[in-house]
Structure prediction request, 225 residues.
Amino acid sequence: MAGKKYKAAKALIDNDKVYNYKEAIALAKQTACTKFDSSVEVSFYLNVDPRQADQNIRGAMVLPNGTGKTRKVLVVAQGAKAEEAKAAGADFVGAAEILEEIKNGWLGFDIIVATPDMMGQLGRLGKLLGPRGLMPNPKTGTVTMNVTQAIEEIKKGKVQYRVDRDGNINCLIGKASFSDEALAENFKALYDQLVRIKPAAVKGAYMKNITISTTMGPGIKVSVE
Prediction:
C-alpha cells in the first residue's frame, strides 16, 4: 500500500531512530491508516535456530488487556467434556461429525481446543490444519482436559506465539482504539514472557530487532532493552 494515507503515516516516523516501546506504541496509533479499527502487532526477530528443538519457541499467554478480537472457538470432545465445553461458551462443539465437516472444507472457527483422546482422529487432518496454524498443541494449552479454562483464557485474549523458520515471532497485542497504557502493558507482558523462555543455547544478543506496526501501516523500530 503506497497511498496518500500510508505516505503521510510513514512521514511521521524517523527511520534513523529506534524508539522505546511506549513512544513506538503512541506513534503506531498515529500512523494507523485504515478506515476500520486497526490491529496493533509486534514482530520480534530472535537469534535462535528453530531447527533445534530447544530453540523452536512456541507457547501461549493471556495478555493483560486482551486483544480486542473475538475468536470463534471449536472444541473437539465427546461425552461429558463436550457438555462442559458447551456450558463454558464454546462457539462450536463436536467430535467425529465435526471433523468430517472440516475434512469437507468447513473452517468457520479461529482456534481449536481438543481433549487428548480426540487427537488421534484430529491428527488425520494435520495436512489441512497444520499449514493454517490450527492444529491444537499441548504447548499452547489447546490439548487439554480442562476445556473450561482453555475456553475462558481464549475469550479473555489469549495469544499464541511461534517462531518461524527465519527466527521471527509476530503477535497481535491489541487494537489502535486501545489506550496507550493498555497496549504498553500487553507489549511488556509479551516481551517479558519471551525473555523468560530464552533458550539456554542462545549465545550473544537474543533479540536482534523489534518492530511495532498497525494493519497496513509502516513499521516502527523498537529499542531492545
